[in-house]
Amino acid sequence: MAAVNGSGDGQDSILEPLCFPEQPADGAGAPSVQGPSVQGPGSELLVCLFCPESVPLRQKDVLLKHLLLEHKLVIADVKLIADLPKYMLYWRGRFLEQPVTDFCSVIKTNSTGPVEKQENYFLLCDVLPEDRILRERLQQKRLEEVLEQQQVERDDGSFHRLCMFCSEEFTGNRSSLLNHMAREHSFSIGLPDNIVYCNQFLDTLQRKLDNLQCLYCEKTFRDKTTLKDHMRKKAHRRINASNHEYDRFYVINYLELGKTWEEVQSEDDRELAEDDDWSDWQAHPVSAVCLFCEHQSETMEQIYTHMKEAHGFDLHKLRTELNLRFYQQVKLVNFIRRQIHQSRCYGCQEKFDCRDAVLRHIAAEGHMMKLPDVSTWNQPQYYFPTYENDALLCTLSDSDEDQSQETNHSEDVPVIAEDISNLRALKQSSVLNQLLKNRGSCS
Question: pLDDT for 124-175, tens place per residue?
């Protein structure tokens, strides 16, 4: 129930901001109320239950405040009403037939004070069976419409859109674009079969990016490059679960009264937190070992400085000159470690009897910064660490990852798409579709 504020000061503290589903119900399957025509999201009219006052749906807070201040009526759990315009029209008709006291609980304020200062407020809530049935029918109707829309989008082969991150063009089914963004850009908004009104969802995200706004923290940046770098470095390649603007795009929000995708995620996180006890965990510093000798340093800056000054090897310079992506650097480090361990010069592949001999050769011949052809070391076998717990691998930079991945994805580590399921099988076995079938059989 919303908190009652009877002071008449016009504050909005009794109201909760939220987003209702975009698509309106059409009256079938709910009490016989006829709403105004819909011209766009939020353009439906909310009509006062007692007087001619009306406002667009997007300004529902204004009408709810009007009901409280002018008519002393509070509607409980407004956020759980699937179709607020039809709900309001239905009760407007019922209040014309019978007095409000026949339906609403009465709350008397200042009950111990003078009679002239006492006021009666009315609470309309689902404790009343008629109200509960109305809410359930509106919810059921909304769910049916959403599932029908979702099915249309599942079967739609005319989808056409550009990727928001690399401008690659996708046609056919929406899943091709969503899986591409998850696989190639580590940006996942969920399984395609969990999403509805997909085009509107992508339009919303694209507008934010066009306005140079981070999709997660929602901060605005001065240019596209800065925004892109921020989202990568801060791991903000995701949407903000606390932003209820996205609620209408997830089917789960239509399944249960008051259940949102954010709450479901929070429940999962709490279960994981309860299972893991980290109270006795202690961090231990891990020393990084030089590529060429047994020198160890407790900071990465120290080990890079040592390799540059003691051996003339500058990994940062190689990364910049060769435009190495993260996994290419991993393979290069593992390759050099393996060659040195085998007493072989990684520059010319000449074999020696011991490590000291190969290091003397590398220094004398100037092979320290000489690398063989890229095909020699840029191989899948060097994804695997040469030495266990090699701390050096954990510090490699990926600052150039974005530029390179837009031109060549062939050498990236294979990533399994989030949705590799059989869509036809999903459609046939979907629990959501069963709801519609059961609904039809009952009627």
Answer: 988 899 999 998 888 888 888 888 888 888 888 888 899 988 888 898 888 8
Is this prediction's pTM over 0.70? no
Residue whose pair of structure tokens reads 């070992």 in the numeric block: 289
Could you tell me which residues come within 8 angstroms of residue 424 by beta carbon, excluding any fewer than 6 positions away?
Answer: none
Q: Is 141 helix (H, G, I), strand (E, B) or coil?
A: helix
Using CA atoms, how far residue 380 sits from 222, 309, 371, 411, in Å, is: 39, 31, 17, 9
Q: Each residue of 376-402: pLDDT tens digit?
A: 888 877 877 878 777 788 777 665 444
Q: Which segments of the chain have a pLDDT < 70?
A: 1-43, 111, 256-286, 397-443
Q: Coil, strand, or helix at residue 338? A: helix
Q: Check: CB of residue 2 under 8 Å from CB of residue 14.
A: yes
Q: What is the biggest distance separating any 2 CA atoms in the chain, rounded to whole angstroms?
A: 105
* Integer CA distances (angstroms), 269 to 182, 263, 266, 275, 336, in order: 21, 10, 5, 10, 41
Strands 73-75 and 119-124: parallel
Instruction: Report the Cα 8 to chain-centroid distance in Å.
Output: 40
Alpha-carbon distance 104 to 354, whole Å? 91
